[in-house]
Design goal:
The chain is α+β, with helices and mostly antiparallel strands. It has one domain: Actin, Chain A, domain 4, CATH 3.90.640.90. It has a 4-stranded antiparallel β-sheet. Belongs to the BTG family. One of its GO terms (cellular component) is nucleus. InterPro entries: Anti_prolifrtn, BTG, BTG-like_sf.
């Protein structure tokens, strides 16, 4: 069953790698051949990194480990793949959003651009075993927490009365 786990994450990994590649393509200045190589290198790096951290039965387990993050620091996996095509970290920071979080979990790949951006789902597939609704519910609430914690209603809100 060793290789089985690896097979299962191909869709999630290729979705995530294709997304980062699209961001690079949109920024311009990187050739198609380079982009293709970047995507393949990134998929390879992610596959290696996630190999023993992929739990389809408990999709949120290891989520932090699999999270790809650019936040004033370049994610090592993206950095590694970019290095293969000769892109420096400086260049990457120019091409990619300065704040990017990408969650690569079994059955769901989602991202957020900017610290206060909304979370967008790139890929979602039903979970075997029919626990889908419950699972998604808990996932959403756990991702929403950072938002709720951040935005308490402003004090001026109470003073806006309609006369």
């Amino acid at each position: 069953a060793g290789s089985g786990a690896g097979e299962d994450m191909r869709t999630e990994i290729s979705t995530a790698a294709a997304f980062v590649t699209r961001l690079l393509r949109a920024a311009g200045g990187v050739g198609e051949e380079q982009l293709r190589c970047f995507r393949e290198c990134l998929q390879e790096a992610m596959h290696e990194h996630y190999k023993h951290h992929w739990f389809p039965l408990v999709p949120s387990k290891g989520s932090g480990y699999r999270c790809i993050r650019i936040n004033h620091k370049m994610d090592p996996l993206i950095g590694k793949a970019a290095g293969m095509i000769g892109l420096s970290h400086e260049r990457l920071f120019q091409l990619l959003p300065s704040e990017l979080t990408l969650w690569v979990d079994p059955f769901e790949v989602s991202y957020r651009i900017g610290e206060d951006g909304s979370i967008c789902v790139l890929y979602e597939s039903p979970q075997p075993g029919g626990k889908v609704a419950k699972q998604l519910e808990s996932r959403t609430s756990c991702k929403e927490e950072w938002r709720i914690g951040r935005s308490s209603p402003s004090k001026s809100y109470n003073m806006m009365t309609v006369s």
